[in-house]
Amino acid sequence: xxxxxxLTFCIGMSRTGTLALAEALEILGLRVIHNSNAVxxxxxxxxxxxxxxxxxxxxxxxxxxxxWQHWRTLxxxxxxxxxxxxxxDMEDWLRSRIIHMLHHRVxxxxxxxxxDTQQWQHEWTTHxxxxxxxxxxxxxxxxLNIPAGDGWQKLCxxxxxxxxxxxxxxxxxxxxRLNEIMARLEGRIRGEATAMGITK
Length: 200
Hints:
Helix content is 46%, strand content 9%. It has 200 residues and is an alpha/beta fold.
């Protein structure tokens, strides 16, 4: 049974299981867009709207990008929308985000970004505190901690649909990034050693 509209917006921050959620929603039959560029394009000028338009009509669920920064506007314009706050332990989240940024530096230098754990922690705390204060009793808000084990039971209850036979997705973990970082660094060191005439 496919969940019916209204729109779903994931308002969790990066590195909180948004890709796993996107795959889970697709298994439930929703049309899903998990793309930061597509999301950012749809969000342009949204703060100037006085009533909802059709900018999100091409999908049932939207994830990634700066959606988490616009949850108030999204709820105001689409009061029946469902909001999913993907979350995790903050220390684990900081570690995952650091690994994510290190992976960019080593493997994707054109996507270089700054590591600022103090700012990240402030954004995390403010975001979660604000949502709890405004939406703690909102039946259209689901808090989902996928790394801690949340999955089909909470998600399907939220949408009032049966639990599928498929296992709940778990993807985009930090392990493969760490392995790729180490492989790239080892390759560079080996190459530099060879260039200097250093061999085993």
